[in-house]
């Protein structure tokens, strides 16, 4: 019975981690941005750029996931405060997605399809794949992981998301052709709705933890 409960909790945590990271990174948005930035690149160069940006973003996620606890101690940040702040940030991003605001910074795009010498680091790896919101999500998930197994699940969720970003960039021409602007808007709004729910849950967890840290019981307030 304990084994069944453990499997259920780990699967639930894995799904939550995948949903939280995947939704905020949104590989489809990365595909559209990648497509617009690589119009004059050769197919070989496109694959090299996609692979490099994916590697850099994955490393960044892993570093912040591993050093999250150290960062908390260094700056005297409590987990409750980080959960609340992270939830507010994610909620703001979710509202932008639901309002269909374009996340792409057009100032980075040069006229007539010209591209910078190396776009794999900025803007692809940072901030489109590993932005502040997604990094905060990874740090929250790893810091509140009850066991080492749950921490490993977060790393798996990161890999699933970054690999998805890689293939979305590789096949961006196909994605853009079949989805178009309307398809992108629908996916973005759906992801925004899911992300808003996750963000609210982060804030609720943070408030409950903060109250517990100060010796305030929720049941006492309700009564």
Query: Average pLDDT, to the nearest integer?
Result: 81
| Coarse morphology | globular
Query: What would you report as the Rg, rounded to the nearest angstrom?
Result: 19 Å
The poorly predicted ranges are: 101-116
**Count of the separate structural domains:** 1
DSSP helix fraction = over 70%
Q: How much of the residues is beta strand, in percent?
A: under 5%
SS-based structural class? Answer: mainly alpha
**SSE string, helices as H and strands as E:** HHHHHHHHH
List descriptors:
single chain, mainly alpha, 223 residues
Please describe what this structure looks like:
The protein starts with a helix and ends with a helix. Helix 2 packs parallel to helix 7 (148-170), helix 2 packs across helix 8 (172-213) and helix 3 packs across helix 5. It has one domain. Mean pLDDT is 81; it is low at 101-116. It has 223 residues and is an all-alpha fold. 81% of the residues lie in helices and 0% in strands. The longest helix has 42 residues, at 172-213. It is globular, with a radius of gyration of 19 Å. The protein is built from nine helices and no strands.
List the helices and strands and how they pair.
Blueprint: H1 2-25, H2 27-37, H3 43-75, H4 79-98, H5 120-129, H6 132-143, H7 148-170, H8 172-213, H9 218-222
Helix pairs in contact: 1-6, 1-7, 1-8, 2-7, 2-8, 3-5, 3-6, 3-7, 4-6, 4-8, 6-7
Short description:
The protein has 223 residues and is mostly helical. It is built from 9 helices and no strands.
